UniProtKB/TrEMBL annotation:
It comes from Streptomyces sp. NBC_00148. Its EC number is 3.2.1.17. Residues 1-38 form the signal peptide. It catalyses: Hydrolysis of (1->4)-beta-linkages between N-acetylmuramic acid and N-acetyl-D-glucosamine residues in a peptidoglycan and between N-acetyl-D-glucosamine residues in chitodextrins. This enzyme has both lysozyme (acetylmuramidase) and diacetylmuramidase activities. This is Lysozyme. GO terms for cellular component: extracellular region. It is found in: Secreted. PANTHER family: LYSOZYME (PTHR34135). InterPro entries: GH (IPR017853), Glyco_hydro_25 (IPR002053), Glyco_hydro_25_AS (IPR008270), Glyco_hydro_fam25_subgr (IPR018077), TAT_signal (IPR006311). Keywords: Antimicrobial, Bacteriolytic enzyme, Disulfide bond, Glycosidase, Hydrolase, Secreted, Signal. It holds the Pfam family Glyco_hydro_25. It comes from the Bacteria.
Length: 280
């Protein structure tokens, strides 16, 4: 007669239960913030680290650099953020760079930790300089971010050495490329920012963007070209198609791999036109 061993099935059930519990715990862990990054499956950067042109290569690619033999007069400039640390401003000045834009803020939660060295350092070597704000339209309103920008380095003065502030509006490095907004809502957000900035400073903000992002996220809105100078991003031999509403660009970011700091730009005109933009 077979003998029933009641203790054999129980340990097996306990092992199955324990295994199921462990799998459930792992599944929960992977849903927690930062877990995907820890697992090596995500590339979402830390808040505050976004920089001008961060998404250009991933979304638009890159080609060659513009020819130096162009007949149009261009004035070389750079844009910098905290990831570049202390910048070698005398080296840039001696290489022919005459103007600079420095990241001041992002959203309403971040201020550039290298702001003083970068903003004051560029001024001290003789450059005309200004500041930019990296927009995060999914966190707070356009007005709130414009005010935060002005209050933390984004102001303007008519001294011939200070350029108007820049709204850096481009791909979202932290999530959906259009920040979860409809095209109409994005246009309204941008309008809220630029209107508030002008009310605070008396200047129209420069808008930095890429044509493909502008098409996707604003529906290629043509309502800003008459007032806001365009800074367009395209890493190629020619500037290419511009966003609707702008017949010309004021600044062209043409590379993120230039000498000394990486992000190099052409201002569309001679140095006196840079001064004219500074003076308004």
């Amino acid at each position: 007669m077979p003998v029933h061993r009641s203790g054999t099935a129980a340990p097996a059930r306990r092992r199955l239960f324990a295994g199921g519990t462990l799998l459930a715990a792992l599944a929960l862990l992977l849903t927690l913030p930062g877990a995907a990054s820890a697992a090596g499956t995500a590339t979402v950067p830390e808040r505050g680290t976004a920089r001008m042109g961060q998404g250009v290569i991933a979304h638009d690619g890159q080609g060659g650099t513009p020819s130096t033999g162009t007949s149009a007069v261009q004035t070389e400039g750079v844009d910098v953020a905290s990831h570049q640390g202390n910048v070698a401003w005398p080296t840039l000045w001696n290489s022919g760079v005459k103007w600079a834009y420095v990241k001041a803020t992002e959203g309403t939660y971040y201020k550039n930790t290298y702001f003083t060295q970068q903003y004051t350092g560029s001024y001290n070597v003789g450059m005309i300089r200004g500041t930019y704000h990296f927009a995060t339209p999914d966190t707070t309103s356009g007005a709130a971010q414009a005010n935060y920008f002005v209050d933390n380095g984004g102001g303007w003065s008519k001294d011939g050495r200070t350029l108007p502030g820049v709204l850096d509006i481009e791909w979202n490095p932290y999530g959906a490329q259009c920040y979860g907004k409809t095209q109409a809502a994005m246009v309204a957000w941008i309008r809220d920012f630029v209107n508030t900035y002008k009310a605070r400073t008396g200047r129209d903000a420069v808008i930095y963007t890429a044509t493909s992002w502008w098409k996707d996220c604003t529906g290629n809105n043509a309502g800003f070209g008459a007032t806001n100078p365009l800074w367009v991003a395209r890493y190629n031999t020619t500037v290419g198609e511009l966003p609707a509403g702008w017949g010309v660009y004021t600044i062209w970011q043409y590379t993120s791999s230039g000498p000394t700091v990486g992000d190099h730009n052409h201002f569309n005109g001679a140095l006196d036109r840079v001064v004219a933009l500074a003076n308004g």
